[in-house]
Automatic annotation (TrEMBL):
Protein name: P2R3C phosphatase
GO biological process: B cell homeostasis; cortical cytoskeleton organization; microtubule cytoskeleton organization; positive regulation of B cell differentiation; regulation of dephosphorylation; T cell homeostasis
Subcellular localization: Cytoplasm
One Gene Ontology cellular component annotation held by this UniProt entry: cytoplasm
Length: 148
């Protein structure tokens, strides 16, 4: 007859054996966990100076890249000039409007930074009950200023 300690040891041994088989078996069957990218990195501690400098530098480079994507004042003025030049009559009160054809023409002339704003999806988003199928130039320009 086995003692209580021997039974506990045997139970633990069996548990470990079955657990390792189960864990190992799942590992072999499902390899998708190796394809999941790491999404969390702990912040560097105060004594990890090199990691802190790397984090600061990478953040600065990211912000520089994002700021280069933004339209500067001259580009915004050029966009407004092009939109105004290609407006489609008739005006609704004081509001200048533009149709899709002219919208695409402005998109071609506006430059590469503006290209992302001249899509059918954005035009449709800003289209509101105009009988001629046009959007407000001012609404579009405000959209560009908010998103860009």
């Amino acid at each position: 007859k086995k003692s209580e300690q021997e039974l506990k040891d045997e139970e633990m041994e069996l548990f470990t054996k079955y657990y390792m088989e189960w864990k190992g078996g799942r590992k072999r069957d499902n390899t998708s966990y190796t394809n999941i990218p790491r999404f969390y990195y702990r912040l560097p501690a105060e004594d990890e100076v090199l990691l802190q400098k790397l984090r600061e530098e990478s953040r600065a480079v990211f912000l520089q890249r994002k700021s280069r994507e933004l339209l500067d004042n001259e580009e915004l003025q050029n966009l407004w000039f092009l939109l105004d030049k290609h407006q489609t009559s008739p005006m609704i009160g004081e509001e200048a409007m533009i149709n899709y054809e002219n919208f695409l023409k402005v998109g071609e002339k506006a430059g590469p930074k503006c290209k992302q704003f001249f899509t059918a999806k954005i035009f449709a988003k800003l289209l509101h009950n105009d009988p001629y199928g046009r959007i407000s130039i001012m609404q579009f320009f405000n959209y560009v200023m908010r998103k860009g």
